[in-house]
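the two lines:
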Amino acid sequence: MMQIAILGFGVVGSGTAEVLTENKKLITAHCGEEVSVKYILDLREFPDHPLGDRVVHDINVILNDPEVVLVAEMMGGSHPAYEFTSAALKAGKHVVTSNKEVVANYGVELLTLARENHVRYLFEASVGGGIPIIRPMQTDLASNEIIAVSGILNGTTNFILTKMKNEGAEFADVLKQAQAMGYAEANPAADVEGLDAARKIVILAALAYGVLIDPKTIPTEGITKITGLHTATADKLGCAVKLIGHTERIDGKIYAAVSPYLVPASNPISHVDDVFNGILVDTNMLGRALFYGAGAGKLPTASAVVADIIDILSHRAEERKLPDWKNAAPADIADKADYICRRCYLIEGCPQCAAKAKAALGTEICEFVEDGKFAVVSREMSEKEATAALASIGLQAVFCLPVLD
Amino acid sequence: MMQIAILGFGVVGSGTAEVLTENKKLITAHCGEEVSVKYILDLREFPDHPLGDRVVHDINVILNDPEVVLVAEMMGGSHPAYEFTSAALKAGKHVVTSNKEVVANYGVELLTLARENHVRYLFEASVGGGIPIIRPMQTDLASNEIIAVSGILNGTTNFILTKMKNEGAEFADVLKQAQAMGYAEANPAADVEGLDAARKIVILAALAYGVLIDPKTIPTEGITKITGLHTATADKLGCAVKLIGHTERIDGKIYAAVSPYLVPASNPISHVDDVFNGILVDTNMLGRALFYGAGAGKLPTASAVVADIIDILSHRAEERKLPDWKNAAPADIADKADYICRRCYLIEGCPQCAAKAKAALGTEICEFVEDGKFAVVSREMSEKEATAALASIGLQAVFCLPVLD
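prediction for all of em together
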């Protein structure tokens, strides 16, 4: 019998207990022994839950119990999750987490602490919910240089964008529906403003490049300004509007950002709809791989937490390498102005303006979305170059969306 | 410096040497030491290759060299690859392979040999080329019961089906094009008859259920009988025709088969086109995950071989659990007749016949593909039940395709 503790008995915490119970037989087979939840740390009581008698309110009970070999942190938020994680690692306990905020903000420090204390800190559930992505990037893709990672990393915004596309609806209306259906929170800012996706893309960037960037500092644009005109433009060009977290290296520096993109139908991520997530990894040998699945939700996310628990408990005797990250210095971070891609500009103008815009942006791709409004897709260039090219012919864009090829 | 040997210097073998050279810096960082190819076993000489001086023709040189800790087998075919693998494991050398034929035919025996000799036998490259699937199924999905696995596992046939769909062309013509472009072999039987996919699906079934089935015994149907009428039918129903390897449990037994399916656009695998592969895994906690990427090709497949090499060499001190498979007994294998799914029947008949067929198959989904030919999609039922239902109203199908939901 191996004893673990669960910190935070909310959606993912209680889901983790459920996965451990539902799939006990196979989990025991993997680990060689039964995995038992000895403590659940929460401010609340759960008198009606079968594990209600495991609830404690003092982290020290867990930290001081040598029987507890692993702590699963699913509290959400930075504090006190960070302090509890730190204390558990110092107490020589392995930690697994679904908490992207803690990993994105304190990952370097916590991985170092884990290393110093000869335990592991795993966080498969922090990005893409239940989708295998963290471990595959560290193992299966270990033979590849990572060229770029581009992902639909937030289910709420993808649900909203999918409904806007399918129903021709506007953002505010669909947000209300999503809230009524429980797919968006009463305060949806972290999702719709792109902050959740920003935390996830900095974790993926750290996995790819070994450098962890403060998520609050990366260019982050959500979907609150997306209108029916954006969706109509995408449709006209055979694309979908998707909120994309993207990272790549530019001249040895790391670029990471979150913003809405146009994604052509030829890109497999364009078909990732509703609350699903999809993550593209471009590599120098394998080429492009896509990982797709449930990016959130109780049992999917819990299944990733339990996969980490199994990974640790089935190899307890071994010391395993942990990712060696460093915190980003300003010199590590590429400027947004240097990010080269194709971009779609929606411009008010006549057919002659459209012809001029095509020439200025070096492209043949141009469609009138409605009378007097055309969408033109530039060749690969920096935003500055494109804006200057348009300004030189007296044109100004209503909006601009990068294109994910 | 860690010394390895490459068996077979064809496409994947030479690709493996290329990945080891191209990405040497990061591979060395992962393994802690440089990985060096000490020997290449091949019948041929490669005087112009930078590693031409490593070529040997006698496996015993490799087996008897204690410096060689790992053998990468990429010979293709069962013999002598099986014998060499077996001998290498007995000599206490780790083995990694891209050879699906050997894994599908001798996996149980070779995994047992590896266990007995305290070495590992890894085969990530044997299914899905470079796509991470074997290791994610063993680690990330370890917390889940596997309900089913359904995959586009063969790039050649997917290329042909994609071209048939996009160009309305017939099989024989597209096959000739594929051969001219190097996407299909001069003798394309293993691909177009479904044998290659059969080997891969039995490996995935073994990973999911621990039982390895002889690939020659599973129901296997290729794409040679697919015509423009199939593609037109698929199109009419908003589907694509895809060659699918499928496995699931039926009443405690294991069903595994390869055949063409109709895949609705709502299924993400329907958008996996050209030579790409995509593998859906349905699980009891995570739900559905999709793994997508280059399912074949020199560098993609080699990148998976090298990922296995890194996995082993970066944890050399550890004894790791290997999958514990057994060979299937007849009693382990489910009967095709018990496989329940929706099926599309193309039937010659009038609108009244169509109405009768809908009632008999318990469905509202029915479209005329051309004059006097309608396609009706049954509710979920066994093939026997559906055939009997159609016979009872005097109807017989021109063809039947299962539907992958």
